[in-house]
Each structure stands twice: as structure tokens, then as C-alpha cells.
Design goal:
Elements lengths: L4 H12 L5 H8 L3 H13 L19 E9 L7 H9 L4 E6 L6 E7 L2 H12 L5 E8 L17
Antiparallel strand pairs: 1-3, 1-4, 2-3
Length: 156
């Protein structure tokens, strides 16, 4: 599928506020509601729009600590990656699980109320998972949403 400037404008506007209706997006971009809806539908059908998500404020929910964990599996081959992934995704404090190439096998984003709560999650839930070997933790100090690849249209 070839995207034009208007498609990229729709994607930028939706990435800023995914709750906008097709009518509101159209008014913002100078398109009719039906034309905007057709473009969104086409991008959904072609897999460009994979879904819409709500961005929760973890701190406002009482989850003041975010930690990124690098996990190296101790016994590759003995522990099924599927078993590890199934077990780790069952932990409610784990927000994301990424299978990566490099020093670690997995990268996790974990939220907790505070550092002692994180320590409890680490000791009782994560370190007891099948095959967990080395773990490295990086505590998030601050986070800023930066413009992604849609900030500029590729032809500009």
C-alpha cells in the first residue's frame, strides 16, 4: 500500500490522540468524515493500523517505579522460550516482554508501587521463572514521549 501525505497526517493526528473520531480527524485535516473513515479503514485492512491503545499514567495509578530488566536465560535449550514467555506474561506488574538479540535474551518493563514492591516482584515472581539466569535492572528516572518516525513524511 502506498501512503500519501494525507494518510501520514491522519496517522500523526491519531498517534497524538487515538480517541478522535473520523469526523473530528476530518475537521482537523480538512477532509469529510466519510473520506477520513475510508482512509482509516483502508489502513486498518492493510495492517498499517494494528490497533488503538489507551496510555495509562502509571504514577497516577499508584505505580511510581518503572524498571527495565535485561534477562539472560541460564539454560537455553532446556527451557522452552514459550514456557518462559507464558510464565512472565502472567505477572501483572510486567507491562512488556521483548525477545531481543544481544547481551540479554529478554527485555521487560516492570512497574511497582515503590522499590520495596519491585524487590518483592523481582524475588518472588521474576527470579523464580523457569530458566532465569542473569538479570540486570535499570530504574527509569524520567520519560519523555518523542516524535516517532511519522514526525516527518518520508518524502519531505
Amino acid at each position: 500500500m502506498t501512503l500519501d501525505q494525507m494518510d501520514f497526517s491522519i496517522l500523526r493526528a491519531m498517534s497524538e490522540d487515538a480517541t478522535l473520531s473520523a469526523g473530528a480527524l476530518g475537521r482537523k485535516l480538512g477532509l469529510s468524515q466519510p473520506a477520513t473513515w475510508r482512509r482509516i479503514k483502508r489502513m486498518q485492512d492493510d495492517g498499517i493500523l494494528a490497533g488503538r491503545r489507551v496510555d495509562l499514567n502509571a504514577e497516577a495509578l499508584g505505580l511510581g517505579v518503572t524498571v527495565f530488566l535485561g534477562i539472560k536465560l541460564a539454560t537455553k535449550g532446556r527451557v522452552s522460550l514459550d514456557d518462559f514467555e507464558r510464565a512472565v506474561t502472567a505477572i501483572p506488574e510486567v507491562q512488556t516482554v521483548q525477545h531481543v538479540l544481544g547481551l540479554y535474551d529478554y527485555r521487560l518493563r516492570v512497574v511497582a508501587r515503590d522499590l520495596s514492591d519491585f524487590e518483592r516482584v523481582l524475588r518472588r515472581r521474576i527470579m523464580t521463572l523457569p530458566g532465569v539466569g542473569n538479570v540486570e535492572a535499570n530504574v527509569l528516572l524520567s520519560e519523555e514521549r518523542l516524535a516517532g518516525p511519522l514526525a516527518v513524511h518520508p518524502s519531505e
